[in-house]
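Duplicate of #3305? Posting structure anyway:
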């Protein structure tokens, strides 16, 4: 039996992001007035070792869009000296080491794996949860996180209604092993106000002006935020019994325990103090491969019980 999927959803009152977990349907939670004060380790396995992140592009993505996402994944590992500007994507990932010191296991090293294209949408343009796992199975069967990325014209069950993405794990198999998977959708034409904030005006909550996307693509830059959140959750809570706050049915994980926080001083409707690209006016908080810039979510620090930001 597959482990429960963890779903990235949006908190309507603040256009912030958080996770939901359940064994069946996942619906938008009630407003959380106050976050729990600690992150609990539930003694389950974490991702460890050398992990390939395989990207499965479902639907039409331009070469530029694929490069933005591929470069982000490549940036999770330490970069060559010429690309190692700080704060970096790799530094952001390494902050998860505090979770691993608690569990006495090493932080996994992620590397870019295979890129698979399904431009003709072999399963159609309206997908259910079972379809996502079927697509994820096209990636590596072990020592991998298989990431399904759906294009802006692909509908996915409960996308934009209660979630922006999901992470989960396949069932156990003697032949192929077990893999973790992530799904993230491009929300640009369907719900950018929910799943691409702060690069789009929010539908609900405070109406601050949207930020300029660092790679010039509202949908894909929004996908990066959601993908980063889900990869952090996959590493620290891959099977639903790792690190999370609150009840198992509606947990908050490493990134989503800090909804809507990207820089210091953040509050509902305001992402916080960020770096600015003076050439484009774009907002970001992390440098990546090939001179790219990204906006990444704050991570909950289990040692201080506070949200830790890069800037």
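Output from current build:
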């Amino acid at each position: 039996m597959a482990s429960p999927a963890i779903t990235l959803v949006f908190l309507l009152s603040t256009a912030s992001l958080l996770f939901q977990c359940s064994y069946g349907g996942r619906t938008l939670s009630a407003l959380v007035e106050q976050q729990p004060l600690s992150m609990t380790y539930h003694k389950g396995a974490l991702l460890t070792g050398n992990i390939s992140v395989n990207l499965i592009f479902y639907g039409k993505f331009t070469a530029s869009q694929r490069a933005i996402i591929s470069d982000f994944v490549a940036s999770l590992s330490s970069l060559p000296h010429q690309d190692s500007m700080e704060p970096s994507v790799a530094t952001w990932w390494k902050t998860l080491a505090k979770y691993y010191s608690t569990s006495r296991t090493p932080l996994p090293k992620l590397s870019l794996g295979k890129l698979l294209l399904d431009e003709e949408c072999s399963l159609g343009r309206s997908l259910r949860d079972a379809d996502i796992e079927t697509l994820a199975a096209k990636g590596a069967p072990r020592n991998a996180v298989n990431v399904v990325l759906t294009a802006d014209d692909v509908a996915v069950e409960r996308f934009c209604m209660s979630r922006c993405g999901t992470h989960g794990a396949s069932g156990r198999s003697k032949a192929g092993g077990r893999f973790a998977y992530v799904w993230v959708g491009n929300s640009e034409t369907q719900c950018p106000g929910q799943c691409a904030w702060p690069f789009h005006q929010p539908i609900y909550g405070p109406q601050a002006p949207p930020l300029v996307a660092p790679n010039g693509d509202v949908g894909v830059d929004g996908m990066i935020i959601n993908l980063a959140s889900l990869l952090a959750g996959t590493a620290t809570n891959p099977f639903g019994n790792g690190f999370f706050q609150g009840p198992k049915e509606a947990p908050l994980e490493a990134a989503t325990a800090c909804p809507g926080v990207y820089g210091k001083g953040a509050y509902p409707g305001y992402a916080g103090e960020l770096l600015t690209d003076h050439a484009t006016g774009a907002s970001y908080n992390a440098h990546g491969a090939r001179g790219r810039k990204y906006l990444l979510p704050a991570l909950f620090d289990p040692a201080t019980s506070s949200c830790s930001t890069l800037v």
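Confirmed duplicate; merging threads. The chain has a mean pLDDT of 87. The two ends are 41 Å apart (CA to CA).
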